[in-house]
Predict the structure.
Amino acid sequence: MMNRICVLYSFKPSSWVSCQKIVENLLKAYQLNGASELTYISYSEENEEYDLIRSGQEIIKLGPTHIIFLDHKPHPYMMLNGLLPILKAVRNLEPKLIFHVYGDFTLFLSDWRKLEKALLGYCIQWYAASDRQKAMLSSFIPEDDITVCPFPVDTKDFFPSPSLRKSFRQEKKWMDDEKIFLFTGRLSRQKRIHQLIRTFAAWRKETGAKARLILVGDVDKLAEPFLLKSEWEGEYFHRLLRIYDELPGEERARISFEGFKPNRELNSYYNAADFLVNISVHNDEDYGMSCAEALATGLPMILTNWAGFASFRRKAYEKEVLFVPVRLSPKGKLIHLRSLYEAFDAFYRRPGESPRKRIAEESLKYTGIKSVSTIVRKGLGVSKRFRGFKPLLEEAVRLNHYQRGNTFSDLKKKSFNHLYFEVYRHYVE
Amino acid sequence: MWNELKTSAKEGQNFVLHRWDNPLHNDHATHQQSQLWPSGEDFYHPLNPMFSFFLKKEEHLSYFQTILLRDGAQGILDFFLRFPKPTAGCAKVIVQKDLLFLVPSAWRKEIFCYDLESGRKYQDTGKYVFYGLLSNVALSWPLFKDSVDQWLTQFDRNAEVTAFFSQRSEILDWEWREKKITTEISAHFQGHFKKPIRFVLWNDVKALSPEKDITFVGLDLWRSAIGYCHAESLMHSRSPQVYPRGRYPGFRGTRIGQWPVSFHHHLAVYGSVSCPHDDFQFFSGIYTPEPSGPPLPAPIKPMLWDTLRERLNVQGLPQVKRNF
């Protein structure tokens, strides 16, 4: 029997750049399943009540076998809390529910709590983007209900290309014997750009390496909310500028801020670079879309051993991914910067060229659209019924309420609280 | 001069960094600022950007070492009418350079001017995003009503157009709604362009900011509402072309330095500034505000706009002499 699947997502691109590609590529993975009839329903934060009602009516009329939430926003509560009882009453239907979970899951625990009663007894497939995110989610959701499904990469957008590498390096005036370390993403306090710049500059100065650090992305103001640290727009930018201005001239010349670049320009950067470096310890780092994209071009990487990044070292190319250890402490996440320094050196001194074609091929066995399509096809057959969230979710919701949204903070000490350690311990080794 | 200014900026207090716990913070002024959203969004810069309506008393002028006034002409005039002379120990004040003619002569030796610049030379792309926070009072101003159609003729009728028009009854009014489209102005615009205009919200405008092939056109052409506009600055920091707002050809000054705002644009700062006009003198002769009173009353505003129309060059429109 043909599956009738309603796929809910925002038809307008997300303001979160990585999410734009994630939704697009997940859709492609579902579309590869010929045995299903897909209907696309707009579900976005700009929907007003009437739009929701209209979408709900459309879903009821269709009588789906599955309802899939592809996007990270808005929360499924807005739709499902009203829709599920009506589907049951009017059409006697209990569609299977599929949720692709993003890094901001812990920011919406109250909404999941509100939805819990409506979800009881339904067959639900929860998808985590990485092994460590699955482990983290299992603090709240029965582990057996969760499957790892990486966010896929489209090889039409990211692929190894020696000719592109040559032409872009010429355009950028990067010498053939220069090693390019590339960062892509938001320049953010939690991505530790200030430490990245300092460590690179220190390494380059001490070793005299012919290397550059290229930073592609806009600065943000996300700061560190779980440690009750907020930032104004422009604040982190000026912090980076101060650090940069204090470097000796020779080091400044080796570090380049390219600013924001749209997705379609990133393939050139990945191909032209020699290594990706990302020492993020962002709480929302469920996956690392930039890592998946870089690997699809065959780019070796230096990554923090943190959260979703841990999934990117596969046996077939384990020497191409170097990890920098991370430790949790009440006052923050501590990166072993000496290891970062040594990683720069190790990659720089490595002889020969990286086996980019092989890295790309091997990585796509995990992150390619075809491979993800296999996972989601299997997921359509989910048969396990949801019995409710684990008790920790209730505790988290209560803390969220009494601490006015600061679920993971010790308000007195301005540090992480016990709940943070309980949940995020899964993100470190 | 530049080093001295930079040192003052770095060492002095910063309004935004202590946004909620500095003595100048008050709910009324914060609400006034929110009426300028999104143009008036807070941002941090060492030169201490803030709006003049937070400065209520003379002692407030000494609280900071540097103040960059984000206001447009209305706010600038109101500020100098309340503080016609610098006080002892007052901050180094920086105003938008194209509004220098509103600065009293008593301030001119001490004042600095700024301009927002990007590395790009402006080029019309033929694909437009119009952005306007429009007040009923401004829309009723005859020089605007009668010149919109003429101003529009510089834009290709076959162009693809997106527009964010947000209307308030008054620029610093209590009531505003993002989705409220001004029927009159929309009709003028749609009357010019052949293709249907896509009317959008602020998030949609932001989503367009990575595109190189669009031209962002802010409708505060005469800089009456805002000097440093957050929306305009965002576009400078990203890829679009930014249509130039009105320029004051009488401005003279020495460029003393520039300070980045993003990787792609910066504040150019001018010292030793001068200009041949002193319109402050005229306005101070007809209106004396209360130190902590409300901003410019309605009858003054059209006279101010007529002055702006005479002083500023706006692309596609002739300068018009005021009739008073």
Observations:
- Residues 29 and 373 of chain A are 4 Å apart (CA to CA).
- Chain A has a mean pLDDT of 94.
- The interface with chain B takes residues 12-13, 15, 46, 218-219, 232-235, 237-238, 241, 257-262 of chain A (CB under 8 Å).
- Chain A has 16 helices and 16 strands.
